[in-house]
Amino acid sequence: MNIKGRYLAPAAATAVAGLVLAGCSSSGEPTTSDTASSSGDVMAGCEDYAAYGTFDSGTVEVYTTITGVELGQLEDTFTDFQKCTGVTVNVVSSDQFETEINIRISGGNPPDLAIIPQPGLLQTVVGTGSVVAAPASVEANVDQFWSADWKKYGTVGQTFYAAPLMASVKGWIWYSPTEFAANGYTVPTTWDELMTLTQTMADNGGTGDNYKPWCIGFESGTATGWPGTDWIEDIVLRESGTDVYDSWVAGDTKFSSPEIKSAFEKFGAVALNPDYVNGGLGGVSSIVDTSFQEAGLPILDGSCSLHHQASFYEAQWPEGTTVAPDGDVWAFLTPPMNEGDPAAVTGGGEFVAAFNDNPQTAAVQTFMSSDLWANIRVSEGGVISANKGLDPTNASSAIGQEAIKILQDDSTVFRFDGSDLMPSAVGASAFWTEITNYVQGKDLDTVLADIDAAWPQ
Amino acid sequence: MTAPVMTDQLASPKKTKAAEAKENLTSKWATAAAIIIAALWTIPTIGLFMTSLVPGDLYRTESWWNVALDGKLTFENFGYVLFSSFGDSSSAPPLLGNLINAIVVTVPTTVFPLVIGLMAAYAFAWIPFRGSNFLFVFIFALQVVPLQLALIPLLKILGPQGIGIAGQFPGVWVAHTIFAMPLAVFLLHNFIAQIPSDIIEASRVDGASHTQIFFRIIIPLSLPALASLAIFQFLWVWNDLLVSAVFGSIKTYTLTYPISNLAGNYGATAYLVPAAAFVSMVIPLIVFFSLQRYFVRGLLAGSTKG
Amino acid sequence: MAGFHEGWQALPQSGLDAQFWSTQGSNLLLAAVAIVAFIAVVALVMFGADLVKGRIRDKVQLVALITPVLLLLAIGLVYPAIDTVWLSFTEIVKQPDPVTGINTEVTNFVGLSNYTYAFTDPTMLRTIINTVVWIILVPLLSTGVGLAYAVFIDRAKGEKTLKSLVFMPMAISFVGASVIWGSIMYDYNETGSQTGMLNAVLGVFGIGPINFLATEPWNTFFLIVILTWIQTGFAMVIISAAIKGVPPEINEAASLDGANAWQRFWSITIPSIRGTLVVVLTTITIATLKVYDIVRTLTQGRYNTDVVANKMYVLSFVEQREPLGAALAVILFIFVIPVVIYNVRSLQKVKETR
Asked: Where exactly are the transmembrane stretches of this chain (chain B) (predicted)?
C-alpha cells in the first residue's frame, strides 16, 4: 500500500468535511457518538480512516454482481477499514443480481448498499422508492473527484443517489503490433481507414487457418449479444455525435431512425461480410456461438487481426502474452469517423446506492467514493476508475494506465455504455437478442422495429 | 405332419421349454438394451468428471480428451473448489462451508414437509369430511403456481417488515417447507389411500382415535414411502437455487449459489464449475445409496390399484 | 456491465479456522434442535388432541391434522396465486417524480388484453407451442425409458449399480446439467477441432459438425433431451419399486398359461402399475411446465426455443413487465387443468372401489 501516505491528506479532509455535513443533514446520530476511543487516539495504521469514525458494532451488507477473483480484491479493500472503524463489511455477490435486487426490495429485505452495474438499473431501483439519497459526505467526494457526467449517471430526477465506483473504457480494437509491423499496417485514424485496412488485410490474408481480418464473439450466457451492442454504441457516438447518442439512449431517437440504422449498417458491413469475419472461428454464423472470452484469441495465431472489445479483455490473454505497444497484442480506440473529430469513447462503470441512512452504511458509502478507496482498489489490479484522485501509475497494466488517462483527460467526450442506460426491457433484453438476430440474417428494418417495440411505454 | 398323438403328449413340456428359451432370448436383448441406456445416461456425467480435471488455462479451448492425451489432467480444480474462497465472499467460508450449509438447510426441509404432508395426506385419504375432495384437488393444483410468483409475497411475511426470519436458516426452512407441500401431500395421499381399508376400519371399530391410527398404523406403514419421498425432497432442495438465494443470506447459502456465481459474471471462473458441480453431487448420491433399499419395499405411489 | 477479471489465475485461499468450525457446528446443532423441537410439537399437539373426550374428538383431530398444511399454503401459495390472476388483468403505469425519480404507480384494469397479446404475438405463440411439445415429450420419454429400463434390469445382476447410473443425473443441479450439455456435449465450433463430445464423435464418422442448439426445429428436441436425462431416474426408481410390488404368483401363473414375456408385460405388469405410471407422468408433467433454467442458460429462447416458464421469468424479472408475466403464469396453470381433471377422476375411482 504505497499509496497511503500520499493520499492521506485530501481523503481525510474530504471525509471529515463530509461526515460533519452528514451529521447535520441526516437524522442519524453523529457517527462519532459510538466512539470507543477518544479522537486523537487513533490506532496505529488507521490515520487514513480516522475520519470515518469508529463503531462498537455494525454490519454493512454490500451487494454486488462482482464474483471470482475480483470479489476477493473488492473485499480486500475493506480490510483496513474494518480494522480501524469496527464496522464489519459483508460483501455478498450474485450472478442473479438484477433479478434478486428487485425481489429483495419488493420483499422489504434490501441490502445496506448495492453496487449497481448500470445507470438504467439504478433508475429502476430508485423508482421503487427504497433508495435513500446519497449523504452529503458522498456528494462532496463525488463533486471533488468525478466529472459532472459521472455524477449525472448517479443522479435520478434531480436527486443524487449513487457515487460511481470503478470504470472501464470500451471500444478498444485489439491487434497484434508484431503482425502490423511485419505487414506494414498502420493504426487507422479514421473509420474509412479502418475499412480500407480491413480490405487490405482480407486481400493479403494471414498466417493462421481460415484467416479473416476480424474476429467477433457474441456468446455470454444470458447476456449473449452485448458485445454487438458495444459496436453500435461506438459507431453512433462517433458518427452522429453526442446529441443523437443522448436522445437515442433516452428513447427519443428511435432505433429505426436513419442515424441508428446507419450504425447498424456500418457494423453489418463488417460482421455480415463473409470475407471479413470470422477469423479462425468460421463464418458469419459462428459469431453468435463464439464466447466473447475466446473471440479475440485467434489474433495470437494469426487467424485474425482485429477484435473489438473493452479494456477488460486484457485479462483474457493467456499467461505469457505481452500486452504492450510493441508486444504480442495491444489496442487502439475505435477511430473517429472523420479526421479532427473530438476523441469520443464509451465506457461502463458501477454505482453504489444505499438503502438506509445508518451511520455505518454512510461511512462505508463515503469510503467507497473516496480517492483512498479508488487507489487501494486499482492497486490490487485488474480494474480502473474514473476517480480523478487516482494515480494512473497504480494501474496494474499499460492498457489500464492508458484507459485512466483517457478518462481523466478533460477533452475526452465520454458517454456511458448506451445499453446500460436504456430500460432493461431494451438494454438488457431486446437490444441483445435483436442484434444477435441481425448477424444471423434477420432483416434490418424488422430488427430495428422489434427493438423499438420493446421500449416501455 | 407328425402324428397328432405325439403332439398332444409333448405339447405341454415343449411349450414351456420354448417359452423359457424365448425368455432367455428377450432377457439377453433386455440386458443389452439396459446396458446401452445405462451407458447413454452415464456418458455426460463422465464428460463432466473428465472436464473437471482440465486446468483453467485450457478449459475454453481444449477438449478433455486432448488434454488427457497430453497428460495435463489435474485435480487442482477440486482443491480450489473445496478450500479456496470464491463465488460469494472471501470473508465467508469456502465451499466446504456452503456444503455444511446445504446440510443444515436440506435435512430439516426434508423432515418438515414430510411430517406435515403425511398428517394432511392421512386426513384427506381416510377422514371423510365435507370439502375433503375439493381441498385435496385444490392443494394438488397449487403445484402449478410458479415459484417465482410466490417469492415476493412470502418474503414480505418472512422479511424484516414481517416476522424477520428471512436471511436466516429458519426463513429458508419455512419457505422450502411451503413450496414442497403440494407435491408431498399429493404423493403421500396416493400411497396412504392404497392401504387396505380393513386395517383402518378394524381399528376404528375397536375405538382407535385418528391420532392413534396415525401413530400406530399410518407412520409405520408409510416409512418406505416416506424414505422414497425423502430422497426426492432432499434432491430438490439440495439443487435449488432460487429459494436459497431469495430467503437466505451469506450465512445460509448452499452449494448452488457459489456454483452459479462461478458460471456467471463473464465466466472468468467457469472452469471451476465442473469440479464444483461434481462435489455437489457427492452427498445426494450417498443419500440415494443409503436409502435405496427402501425403494424395493416402498411403493411411493401405491401399486396394484389405479 | 461490470466485468474485469484476472482470468483463471490463483484464487484467494481462505483458512478453516476455529471460528469457521464453531459457526458451522452451531448451525448443525440448530438444525438438529429444530427437527427435534418440531417433532416434539407435532407429537404434543396430536396427543393433546387425543385427550379430548366425546364426539368432538374426531373433529379436533381432523383440525390438528390439516391446519398446518392449509395455513402454510394459504400464506405461501394461495395468496400469491390470487394476486397473480388479478395482476394478469391489469397494466401498471409508472410515472417517475421529476425531482426524486421515485415512481408513482397506477394500476389499470385492462381485461384480457395481456392474454390477447400472448395468443396473437407470433413469438409468444411459438413459445406456447414449444411448451406443449415439452409437456408431451418429456413425461412420455422419461417415463417410457424409465419403465423400459426398470423392466430390463428387474432382478438382473448388479441391479443396484445399474439403477444408480441412471439415477445419477437427478443429483445434478440445473446449473451443472446446463454446463454438461451446453459446453461438454453440444458444444460446436464451426472450424477447427471439436471440444463438444457429440460433434467429436460425429467427426470420427465424417459427419457434421452440427450446431445442436441452433438447428431448428431439432434444437427444442435437444433441450428436451436434457430434462429427460434428468427425470428418467425419477421415473425409473418409482416404477421399479412398483414392479417389485406386483405379486410374482400372477406372473408365474400367466407364464404357465403360455404367456410370453411381452404378453405378460402388457397384460399383467402395465395394468398392475397403472396408478404409479399416472403419478409419475403427472409429477413429471408439472415439473416440465415449471422448468425455465435450461432454456435460460443455454439459448435464452433464441432460435425459436423459448418456453412459457422462461418467458414468464424474463418478462417478470428482467423486463419488469409483470402483468404480462402474470398472464403467462395463468396460461401455464390452464395447461395443467387436463392433468388435474384426469387425476381427480382416478382419485374418485380409487375411493369408489374401496
From this structure: 29-50, 99-127, 134-152, 172-192, 213-238, 271-291
